[in-house]
């Protein structure tokens, strides 16, 4: 916990202190824009708030000041489905008609979209009403029943295919050169909400201008990939004068885009040393208190000193994809820093480290990431699990505002029932603590009712039959 | 390092982040009434969440989140802003 | 103790508290003083550990306190107590005691916070409760804040440093704190401060955490067993209590006699040790108490913890009556809803039936049915095992034998309960462990059959994940009416055909059934009339069918017409069959119009378990009942076809002609050459490395690629010469069992063996086996098996093959335990999540998880493979109407 706060605070504070919440445009425009987006966009873009571009104010305010300023936001009226679009494309028109026939009843938007496009293709506009009625009937038939134990069914649907997944983690997925954990170990990692996955990986997309230019792509890659001093320069220890001479290779430096000043900066950060540039392009590092031992220490340090690159990124592969242009794949992940590098597309770059996503992009993004990763892991093994179960697990893991593990350190450990926790793990301590706190177990969950021997409050146990007595009929 | 570093732009434009809107007090009451909920029964979001900081949501407010979904294309959910205890 | 039968009480709440010394004394039935258990005659000693006032374990004796006997609903046992000579710290509360001591002042008992801090914290606690947040942080903060102060804000006394020596000794500023001193300190803590220390004053006072009275569990909790030799062996807890009492006595005597301080303290420590191990024998920091044999004792905490403990082994899951377990075997003639139960099991398990005015005659007949002379002719006659009479308020269970059957039958009253044996049509729950999903336990109708195994329809194997290699399964008989109704409507096999995991059918044709259907409908199959009648008889078809005539064959029926008898009349479908899925021409499609199969081959894509299109359509359009009938009929038809057509396989199904074998050998030789060249290039340092990879890695990857291609090539050549007359190919192509990979391994080339994704490297130094030279990187030295299974593997190839196979087995073994644990955690976290009437998904406490289930409210079972509504179908239907 506390270790990560500094970086987290730094990044997010920077971001928020620069943008002020803005006035919203009028509701009408909103509706129009989003309607159009829905109707025409096939690609998945985020429905963003139609804000005016955020005005960047320069401020170095810290977190405390942000809290003190009371900020009021004007609210956008929620987008309604039934509304008259300004520009009428045939899809909009048919969606409009469908909504008319719906008269306030609910049909998922995806179905409305699909129906409207099929209607146009098959030219069945006249039968729209019948189609809508039929769709509604089918929808009602397929809805989930109340009191359904969706939690257990979801847990079983995810856990049961687990026995068919391989434990074999070594498999080259996607990009042939990068190792990713697959199968059951990966699923367990996701469910355990591990802070750092065993094979962290990032997909770094590039901005428009950088995407198609190989040199620019390489430039970005150089900025990200870790370069160690050993690779670019010769390090000579001068024992008599107790100095170390660093001779950088000119070609390599130029290739990677590092300047002597950069080197000086980095070398200057080593404690108790002083770095001076020489005329022939080499740098002399001298110690503040000359001692033999110090010299050796500094020598060692210099060898593995990080000159450039982002912490945590071990290897970079630059690849040209078909529609995307150049994409960078990295082994190792550091979302906070990579997003800040020039040329990196901040809208699409992502990582498979879920806690990092929660830190940088927010809890909703983490939820999407969990669903995405879990679904990929399962379908890559050839197992077909309905998304709704995975969504339920993801929602439970993120329902408290942070990504919690499934297990006694997370969700199960925070249940309100004493017996449920005691039956799960670490029995005795829980019981004793409950006694001290005077806890009372309301017997609302499943495990405790089973222990006590009563019907459970799910499914058929949630329903009770009541008989209505009528007066006896007169003979 | 002489690399040009930018500052993090609008994270809400990232493709993983859905739209978050702060509800007014009246709307909050409507939602509480509609679902017959108490305030502490909502799903939560921390006030230190990057999106909350971005839009300036305070503890006690309710956010309306419009996600894009694989099952229904668009789905609406709500979260209560809570003070983080760390 | 009388139990009123009519009103069932429901437990509403369970409240946990600590026991105060007064309560312990009040609830005790006797004070325990002596450490002796039984005297010379074998009777328990008064005031001893096995005092009869604490309960009875011998059947026949009566308890002195409550007067009941041993047995169910009889004497439950009563507590006793031991007065400890000196107070002892309860090991379970040690951490809390330490926190209390650290946060309060020794003299005045106040919390070491000033008033402002205190009020602040109280406010925060209240606020957190409203918000429902996790309070643990707050309590930790309170303790750390209180620790910070050096002097008490109320009386000014200096605060000492409290240390805890594992497991139970406290030191203040280095000086030892005796339990008596601790108790006095805790007594001073005020009631108002307790909420800040996470103690509820209504249920616990801090000083109760230091024991002065020890409750003695009843005799029924720690019964003694009589061994075969006649000796009595005491329970572990009794042994421990004996130790405690002995030391307590000695301590008492020594203290009263005024012994030196040192001895008293020693004995006190010993008493503490014994009580600590009595409560928890696995406390870290002290040696566990052991038996004479060396085995550690099983004391109170061990009884509750872990998989074999009270919670997991006796409460969350119990052994039950009215259950049975045997080996399973297949029976395609049963419906999927039915289960064949052997005679012996049907006679042993019973169903309770209440005798009322409507069925008393029938019950009377049933009792004597088994002993009537006509019963000798039939295979099985259901009888009655027990009658439960309610005579004078006492229930009596009477066993029925041939001697008293008549008498009991005559005297049968309304209101008694008879327990009758199983009859055809009774419902039973059938289950196979591990029960991973809800389809692992389904309700079946009983059919009593001869034999000793459970029999059921083959199609039901996938949900149970059962095969017939010796698996055993469990049967549970449903006892009550409510349960019977629930099982009938919710748990029957036909209701569970669709799986919630992905919205498709999980029960459907498998193995031979698919082969049979394939044989029947492939390539315009013509079936001679005699065989056709047999097939139609198997299905039970009563109707017309077209018979054609041909010179060569005689009168025949088209295979697809036979299959069409199973289809409903309003079915119209068109989809690709699996056998021909690679082709794109028209003949690859299965076309059904108005319930008649016009063209195409029926295989896995039509009637198979996960992908059957026809099965899916029937279930969705006509319901589960029709679906069940369809599956039953397809089973019978498929197996009948396979029987009549003589479908079989033998080893010469894997034979390929000589020239094919030569071609394969040629191809493999070329591959070996390529590999040799690669190795040479690597050794001569001429190999170009792939970006980002070292030379060795590149070499390995290239070689793996070559070996993979070699095996594929061998498989292709073999595949060219194995056509659809080959039974193995039929099974692979139709999706019944196996794949073309199996065939290519049997006839072509087995391929590269891999451990952990790489070629075989381990073994001897620098080489895998001594048969090869050191440093040999060639194909066969690293696990490439060039032979096919038919030809046979040579010794080194066999060894590498077994290495690869072993990895698979280990993988399976590790996988089951890890995935089982993950499933257990998932289930535990999600178990009380439920969909409410307003569509939201909520947890037990009312907290909302999702506002609409799955964001669109659709049940995954009923969804069309994830889609909410079948739009295509709607459009197609509306088009038809037009």
Explain how this protein is built.
The complex is a heterotrimer of chains A (475), B (86) and C (882). Chain A has 475 residues and is α+β, with helices and mostly antiparallel strands. Among the domains of chain A are: 90-142; 162-199 and 352-397, PTS-regulatory domain, PRD; 208-338, Gyrase A, domain 2 (2-Layer Sandwich); 415-462, DNA polymerase, domain 1, CATH 1.10.150. Chain A has 21 helices and eleven strands. Chain A has helices at 5-18, 27-40, 63-68, 90-102, 109-122, 128-142, 150-159, 183-191, 208-211, 214-224, 229-232, 250-256, 260-268, 292-303, 335-338, 354-361, 363-380, 387-397, 418-424, 427-437, 446-452; strands spanning 201-204, 227-228, 233-238, 243-248, 273-277, 283-287, 306-308, 315-321, 325-331, 350-351, 440-441. In chain A, strand 3 and strand 4 (243-248) form a beta hairpin. The longest helix of chain A has 18 residues, at 363-380. Chain A is flat and about 120 Å long. Chain B has a single domain (2-82), classed as Eukaryotic RPB6 RNA polymerase subunit. Chain B has a four-stranded mixed beta sheet. Chain B is globular, with a radius of gyration of 15 Å. The termini of chain B are far apart. The model of chain B is unreliable at 1-5 (pLDDT under 50). In chain C, a hairpin with a 2-residue loop joins strand 4 and strand 5 (175-177). In chain C, the strands form nine sheets. Chain C has a six-stranded mixed beta sheet. In chain C, strands 11-14-12-13 form a four-stranded antiparallel beta sheet. Chain C has a three-stranded antiparallel beta sheet with strand order 3-4-5. The two termini of chain C are 76 Å apart. Chain C folds into six domains: 31-78 and 217-312, RNA polymerase II, clamp domain (DNA Excision Repair, Uvrb, Chain A, Irregular), CATH 4.10.860.120; 88-214, no CATH class; 323-495, Barwin-like endoglucanases (Beta Barrel); 512-645, Orthogonal Bundle (Enzyme I, Chain A, domain 2), CATH 1.10.274; 651-794, Topoisomerase I, Chain A, domain 4; 834-881, no CATH class. Chain C has 882 residues and is of the alpha+beta class. The radius of gyration of chain C is 38 Å and the shape is globular. Chains in contact: A-B, A-C, B-C. Chains A and C meet through helix 5, helix 6, helix 7, helix 8 and helix 18 of A and strand 1, helix 9, helix 24, strand 27 and helix 25 of C. Strand 11 of chain A pairs antiparallel with strand 1 of chain C.
């Amino acid at each position: 916990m506390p270790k990560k706060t500094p970086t987290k605070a730094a990044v997010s504070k920077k971001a928020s202190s620069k943008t002020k919440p803005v006035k919203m445009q009028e509701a009408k425009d909103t509706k129009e824009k989003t309607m159009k987006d829905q109707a025409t966009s096939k690609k998945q873009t985020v429905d963003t708030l139609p804000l005016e571009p955020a005005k960047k104010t320069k401020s170095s305010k810290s977190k405390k000041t942000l809290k003190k300023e009371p900020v009021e936001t004007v609210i956008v009226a929620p987008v309604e489905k039934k509304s008259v679009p300004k520009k009428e494309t045939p899809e909009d028109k048919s969606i409009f008609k469908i909504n008319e026939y719906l008269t306030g009843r609910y049909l998922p938007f995806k179905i409305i979209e699909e129906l409207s496009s099929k209607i146009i293709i098959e030219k069945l506009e006249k039968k729209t009403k019948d189609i809508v009625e039929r769709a509604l009937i089918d929808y009602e038939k397929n809805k989930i029943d109340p009191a359904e134990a969706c939690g257990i069914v979801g847990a079983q649907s995810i856990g049961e295919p687990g026995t068919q997944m391989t434990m074999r983690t070594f498999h080259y997925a996607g990009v042939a050169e990068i190792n990713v954990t697959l199968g059951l170990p990966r699923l367990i990692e996701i469910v355990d909400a591990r802070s750092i996955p065993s094979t962290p990986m990032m997909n770094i997309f590039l901005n428009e201008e950088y995407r198609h230019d190989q040199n620019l792509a390489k430039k970005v890659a150089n900025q990200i990939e870790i370069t160690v001093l050993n690779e670019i320069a010769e390090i000579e220890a001068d024992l008599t004068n107790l100095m170390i001479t660093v001779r950088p290779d000119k070609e390599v430096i130029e290739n990677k885009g590092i300047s002597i000043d950069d080197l000086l900066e980095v070398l200057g950060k080593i404690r108790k040393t002083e770095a001076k540039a020489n005329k022939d392009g080499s740098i002399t590092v001298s110690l503040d208190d000359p001692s033999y031992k110090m010299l050796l220490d500094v020598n060692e340090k210099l060898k593995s000193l990080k000159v450039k690159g982002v912490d945590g990124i071990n290897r970079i592969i630059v690849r040209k994809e078909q529609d995307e242009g150049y994409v960078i794949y990295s082994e190792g992940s550091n979302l906070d820093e990579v997003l800040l590098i020039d040329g990196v597309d901040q809208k699409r770059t992502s990582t498979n480290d879920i806690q990092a996503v929660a830190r940088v992009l927010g809890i909703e993004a983490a939820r999407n990431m969990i669903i995405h990763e879990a679904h990929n892991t399962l379908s890559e093994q050839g197992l077909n699990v309905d998304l709704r179960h995975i969504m339920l697990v993801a929602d439970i893991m993120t329902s408290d505002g942070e990504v919690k593990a499934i297990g006694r350190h997370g969700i199960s450990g925070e249940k309100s029932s004493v017996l449920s926790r005691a039956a799960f793990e670490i029995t005795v301590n829980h019981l004793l603590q409950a006694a001290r706190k005077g806890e009372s177990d309301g017997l609302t969950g499943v495990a405790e009712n089973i222990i006590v021997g009563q019907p459970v409050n799910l499914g058929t146990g949630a329903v009770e039959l009541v008989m209505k007595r009528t007066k006896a009929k007169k003979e | 390092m002489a690399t040009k570093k930018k500052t993090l732009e609008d994270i809400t434009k990232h493709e993983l982040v859905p739209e978050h809107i702060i509800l007014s007090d009246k709307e909050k009451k409507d939602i509480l009434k509609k679902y017959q909920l108490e305030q502490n029964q909502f799903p939560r979001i921390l006030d230190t969440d990057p999106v909350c900081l971005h839009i300036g949501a305070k503890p006690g407010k309710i956010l309306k989140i419009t996600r894009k979904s694989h099952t229904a294309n668009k789905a609406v959910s709500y979260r209560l802003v809570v003070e983080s205890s760390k | 103790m009388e139990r009123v039968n009519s009103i069932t009480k429901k437990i509403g709440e369970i409240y946990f508290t600590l026991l105060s010394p007064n309560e312990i004394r009040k609830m005790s039935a006797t004070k325990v003083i002596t450490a002796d258990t039984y005297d010379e005659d074998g009777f328990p000693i008064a005031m001893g550990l096995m005092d009869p006032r604490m309960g009875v374990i011998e059947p026949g004796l009566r308890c002195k306190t409550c007067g009941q006997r041993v047995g169910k609903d009889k004497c439950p046992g009563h507590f006793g107590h031991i007065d400890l000579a000196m107070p002892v710290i309860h090991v379970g509360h040690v951490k809390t005691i330490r926190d209390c001591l650290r946060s309060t002042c020794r003299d005045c008992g106040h919390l070491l916070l000033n008033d402002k801090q205190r009020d602040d914290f109280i406010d925060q606690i209240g606020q957190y409760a409203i918000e429902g947040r996790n309070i643990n942080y707050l309590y930790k903060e309170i303790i750390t804040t209180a620790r910070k102060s050096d002097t008490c804000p109320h009386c000014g006394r200096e605060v000492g440093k409290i240390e805890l020596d594992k497991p139970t000794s406290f030191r203040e500023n280095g000086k030892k704190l005796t339990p008596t001193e601790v108790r006095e300190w805790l007594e001073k803590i005020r009631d108002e401060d307790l909420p800040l220390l996470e103690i509820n004053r209504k249920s616990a006072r801090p000083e109760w955490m230091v024991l002065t009275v020890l409750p003695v569990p009843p005799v029924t909790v720690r019964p003694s067993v009589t061994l075969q030799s006649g000796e009595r062996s005491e329970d572990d807890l009794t042994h421990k209590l004996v130790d405690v009492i002995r030391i307590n006595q000695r301590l008492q005597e020594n203290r009263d006699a005024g012994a030196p301080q040192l001895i008293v303290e020693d004995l006190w420590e010993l008493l503490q040790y014994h009580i600590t191990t009595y409560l928890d024998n696995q406390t870290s920091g002290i040696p566990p108490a052991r038996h004479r044999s060396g085995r550690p004792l099983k004391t109170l905490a061990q009884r509750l913890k872990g998989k074999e403990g009270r919670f997991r082994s006796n409460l969350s899951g119990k052994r039950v009556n009215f259950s049975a377990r045997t080996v399973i075997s297949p029976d395609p003639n049963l419906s999927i809803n039915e289960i064949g139960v052997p005679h012996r099991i049907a006679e042993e398990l019973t169903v309770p039936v209440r005798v009322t005015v409507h069925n008393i005659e029938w019950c009377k007949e049933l009792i004597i049915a088994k002993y009537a002379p006509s019963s000798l002719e039939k295979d099985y006659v259901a009888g009655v095992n027990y009658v439960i009479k309610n005579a004078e308020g006492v229930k009596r269970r009477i066993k029925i034998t041939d001697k008293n059957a008549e008498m009991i039958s005559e005297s049968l009253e309304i209101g008694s309960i008879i327990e009758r044996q199983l009859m055809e049509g009774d419902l039973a729950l059938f289950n196979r462990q591990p029960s991973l999903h809800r389809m692992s336990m389904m309700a079946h109708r009983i059919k009593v059959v001869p034999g000793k195994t459970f029999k059921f329809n083959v199609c039901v194997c996938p949900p149970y994940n059962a095969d017939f290699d010796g698996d055993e399964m469990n049967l549970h008989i449903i006892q009550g009416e409510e349960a019977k109704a629930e099982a009938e409507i919710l748990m029957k096999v036909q209701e569970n055909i669709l799986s919630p995991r992905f919205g498709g059918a999980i029960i459907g044709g498998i193995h031979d059934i698919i082969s049979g259907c394939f044989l029947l409908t492939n390539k315009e199959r013509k079936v001679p009339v005699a065989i056709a009648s047999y097939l139609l008889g198997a299905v039970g078809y009563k109707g017309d069918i077209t018979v054609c005539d041909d010179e060569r064959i005689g009168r025949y029926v088209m295979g697809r017409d036979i299959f069409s008898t199973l289809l409903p009349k309003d079915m119209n479908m068109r989809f690709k069959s699996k056998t021909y899925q690679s082709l794109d021409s028209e003949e690859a499609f299965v076309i059904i119009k108005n319930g008649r199969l016009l063209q195409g081959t029926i295989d896995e894509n039509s009637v198979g378990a996960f992908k059957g299109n026809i099965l899916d359509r029937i279930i969705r359009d006509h319901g589960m009942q029709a679906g069940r009938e369809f599956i039953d009929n397809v089973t019978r038809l498929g197996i009948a076809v396979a029987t009549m057509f003589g479908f079989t396989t033998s080893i010469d199904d894997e034979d390929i002609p000589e020239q094919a074998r030569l071609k394969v050998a040629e191809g493999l030789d070329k591959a070996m050459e390529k590999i040799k060249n690669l190795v040479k290039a690597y050794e001569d340092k001429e190999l170009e490395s792939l970006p980002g990879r070292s030379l060795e890695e590149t070499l390995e990857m290239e070689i793996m690629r070559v070996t993979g291609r070699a095996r594929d090539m061998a498989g292709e050549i073999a595949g060219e010469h194995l056509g659809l007359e080959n039974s193995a190919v039929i099974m692979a192509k139709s999706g019944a069992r196996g794949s073309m990979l199996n065939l290519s391994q049997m006839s072509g080339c087995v391929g590269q063996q891999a451990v952990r994704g790489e070629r075989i490297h381990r073994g001897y130094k620098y080489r895998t086996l001594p048969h090869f030279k050191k440093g040999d990187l060639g194909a066969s030295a690293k696990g490439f098996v060039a032979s096919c299974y038919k030809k046979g593997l040579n010794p080194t190839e066999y060894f590498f093959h077994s290495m690869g196979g072993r990895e698979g087995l280990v993988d399976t073994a590790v996988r089951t335990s890890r995935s089982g644990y993950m499933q257990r955690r998932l289930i535990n976290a999600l178990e009380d999540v439920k969909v409410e009437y307003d569509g939201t998904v909520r947890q037990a406490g009312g907290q909302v998880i999702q506002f609409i289930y799955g964001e669109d409210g659709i049940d995954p079972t009923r969804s069309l493979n994830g889609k909410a509504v079948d739009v295509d179908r709607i459009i197609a239907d509306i088009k038809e109407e037009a």
